[in-house]
Amino acid sequence: MKENRQDKMLEIIRNYDVGTQEELAGRLREAGFSVTQATVSRDIRELKLSKVPTAEGGQKYVALEQEEGGRGDRFIRVLQDAFSSMATAQNLLVVRTVSGMAMAAATAMDALQFPEVVGCVAGDDTIFVATHTVEEAQALMEKIRSITA
Q1: C-alpha–C-alpha distance, residues 137 and 120, integer Å
Q2: Considering the entire predicted model, what is its pTM?
Q3: Sheet harboring 117-122: ordered strands across?
């Protein structure tokens, strides 16, 4: 039951801009799950959901994809340590890193398995990240901003 509920939570936040626990609980109830605010709060912590800003000025929940066994934490630290700045150019996200860290940061991004990423090309201090769409490039930038902030 818990696994099914949490899977549904992840599906909901992938498909909708959900900004509050109450809204998430409501969508879960619509999907047939009997939940309380405390249950939703606990699931958010267990799933390590984060809030990122939306283009409209609000916030929404996102799941930061991580590898099994907690290895994702190490990759997040690499991104945090390497990150300098970023900008979008159509469906490309250009990530600038401290000198010599682009390859490690690109490897970390690949390991985190962001669904938006088609592929990464890294130089010394710059990573070109290809996404499917302009919107995915923006969403990925929001996720990385939430990790590196």
Answers
A1: 12
A2: 0.55
A3: 83-89, 92-97, 126-131, 117-122
